[in-house]
Design goal:
alpha/beta; binds 6-phosphogluconic acid; hydrolase; 8 helices; 7-stranded parallel sheet; 3-stranded antiparallel sheet
């Protein structure tokens, strides 16, 4: 099930989104002593990360991890880990705990066994922020990959290695069931192209063609779409 929240500008979107996330994380810390936040890479969340990093919170009780990463050393420009460390884990958020999806092996497929226990050991997440590509991928659950059926299956491991055919780098991605195991799920979209893709995803049900549909049409999970045109 999905609920669309539309904002008049990215500034308004980011202010509202950051406040909402901080409330969720704060509540988790009060109730359970710790909070778990899953974020996405890509261009869309960068301004949100800057806002969050300047917000007061007991960040030392917050664990941050990525929904997916490219199989790159964290010093590489296209590493999502590098992006999160440079934008979110700064300022007031510099003492948050970060869990990497990377291991120093040549292939994501051989590294998966090392990464898996880090993620499968985690409790229910408090918030997951998803992005969406124009092909309807989310995290690194790419429609063009041979791993898509496994990643969307009920019995999928918490993380899996993925080799997209239409995007660079091998990836490590959280699976659909691991991402759904969250108290709150958001989809963060900026730009009218993304709204067109969202409408296409809502119009039909084939999840292998557009993996984001597995979230948007999920019978139980609530997905809040945080959207602005610009
Ligand atoms: O590593 C990544 O690229 C992501 O996690 C991916 O799922 C991303 O969220 C979408 O591709 C949207 O990316 P943009 O925000 O750059 O459009």
């Amino acid at each position: 099930m999905m609920q669309l929240q539309q904002f008049s500008s990215t500034d308004n979107l980011n202010a509202d989104f950051a406040a909402r996330l901080v409330d969720i994380l704060q509540q988790a810390i009060e109730q359970r002593g710790a909070a778990y936040l899953v974020v996405s890479g890509g261009k869309t969340p960068q301004a949100l990360f800057n806002t969050l990093s300047n917000t007061d919170l007991a960040w030392d009780k917050v664990t941050v991890l990525l929904a997916d990463d490219r199989w790159l050393d964290a010093n590489q420009p296209d590493s999502n880990e590098r992006l999160v460390k440079a934008t979110l884990l700064q300022n007031k958020a510099s003492n948050a705990r970060f869990i990497s999806l990377y291991a120093d092996t040549a292939s994501a497929f051989t590294g998966a066994a090392e990464v898996l226990p880090r993620i499968s050991a985690l409790p229910t997440f408090d918030a997951v922020i998803l992005g969406m590509g124009e092909d309807g991928h989310t995290a690194s659950l790419f429609p063009c990959s041979a791993q898509i059926e496994e990643g969307l299956s009920d019995g999928a491991p918490a993380v899996l290695a993925v080799e997209p055919q239409t995007a660079p780098y091998q990836r490590m991605s959280l699976s659909l069931p691991r991402l759904l195991d969250s108290r709150h799920i958001f989809l963060h979209l900026v730009g009218s192209n993304k709204l067109t893709v969202l409408n296409k995803a809502m119009a039909e049900h084939d999840v292998l063609a557009m993996p984001i549909r597995a979230f948007l049409h999920h019978p139980v999970a609530q997905v809040t779409v945080m959207y602005s045109d610009n």
